[in-house]
């Protein structure tokens, strides 16, 4: 099971469409981080496909215990929050969890 975060860019873009996004956002930075995240997700899915691994994807906010049926491994793609959210659903280490930071800190973030 691949658990994928929703980026701030995606969230704020939805707010922007409704005229509710803060005006002082650094859109270029958010968009750049969004593209880094999406590239990471695409690369992971390509690797899984190339190795004939069966998987399903779920958005972090939609994750529920029902998604864990017949799962051998959970991969959380995002940051610390995504890993912690995913870990919350795991019982006593019966399903291993692999966390992937989809947008490691860049020079501009320091």
Written description of the protein model:
With 110 residues, this protein is an alpha/beta fold. The model has no long low-confidence stretch (mean pLDDT 89). The chain is built from 3 helices and 4 strands. The N and C termini lie far apart (32 Å).
- Poorly predicted residue ranges: none
- Look at the structure and give the mean pLDDT: 89
- Helix and strand pattern: EHHEEHE
Sheet with the most strands? 4 strands, parallel
Rg, Cα atoms, Å:
15 Å
The portion of residues forming beta strands comes to 5-15%
Category from helices, strands and their pairing: alpha/beta
The strand order across the widest sheet is 2-1-3-4
Helix content: 25-40%
* Cα end-to-end separation: 32 Å
Number of separate helices: 3
The tally of strands reads 4
Shape: globular
Question: Which key features would you list for this structure?
Answer:
110 residues, four-stranded parallel sheet, alpha/beta, 4 strands
In short:
This protein is of the alpha/beta class and about 110 residues long.
Question: How are the SSEs ordered, and which strands pair?
Answer:
Layout: E1 2-4, H1 8-17, H2 27-50, E2 57-59, E3 74-78, H3 80-88, E4 97-101
Parallel strand pairs: 1-2, 1-3, 3-4
């Amino acid at each position: 099971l691949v658990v994928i975060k929703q980026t701030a860019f995606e969230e704020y873009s939805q707010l922007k469409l409704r005229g509710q996004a803060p005006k002082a956002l650094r859109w270029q930075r958010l968009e750049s981080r969004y593209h880094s995240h999406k590239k990471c997700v695409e690369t992971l899915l390509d690797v899984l496909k190339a190795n004939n691994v069966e998987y399903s994807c779920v958005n972090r906010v939609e994750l529920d215990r029902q998604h864990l049926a017949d799962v051998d491994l959970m991969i959380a793609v995002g940051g610390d929050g995504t890993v912690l959210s995913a870990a919350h659903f795991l019982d006593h280490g019966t399903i291993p969890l692999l966390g992937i930071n989809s947008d490691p800190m860049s020079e501009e973030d320091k």
